[in-house]
Amino acid sequence: MSDRPAIWFPLALLAVLALLTTWLDFQVRNSITERAIRGRHDPDTLLHNFVTRQTSAKGALELTLRARQLRHYMDDDSSALDLPVVEQLGAKGDTLTVRSERGTASGDRSQVEFFDRVVLKQGGTVKEPYTLETSYLKVLTESQRASTDRDVRIINARTQITGHGLDFDFKARTLTLRSNVRVTYLPPRKHAAPTPAPAKTVRRAAARAAR
Length: 211
Hints:
By secondary structure, this protein is α+β, with helices and mostly antiparallel strands. Helix content is 16%, strand content 49%.
């Protein structure tokens, strides 16, 4: 699969993660204390129920990151997040939201991982938004690749794609589902029929028309 609408939306994920890792570096390095004990994997920095936003040079909101808790570990400079939610707002009003139960970032920020109930969802002004669901996603920021070895589900209003294992190549703009790929075309949604007017209202309208 390549260069099809079904795979274009994950390409924005790399931009989200680039901003996220930059923020992690800034936030953590400006909050580090000397409480870490060498040789132990204990958090030296804890941030609770935080929300942070990044804006463009013109002041427009570009990225919002929130999580229940962030923990930084001095021994390997890694970070862990509980219930992370990353929201990117595009210039045309399109949005991309990435959320999971847990997240981690390696010490050099070259690897970001999302665990449990991982959801990537388009929104805003996107005409046919897609949602991607899996239980694990690993992103390599330097090589600009992402992958999972778990089951994947990609869905929009008309199509559902399922498979096992997935590889993104952000540079090549390609997505590959490794095995057990199934495509289901969903029936169009039926619009609800208008509610009929009560009989008395119909008779009164007919009587007025006859006058």
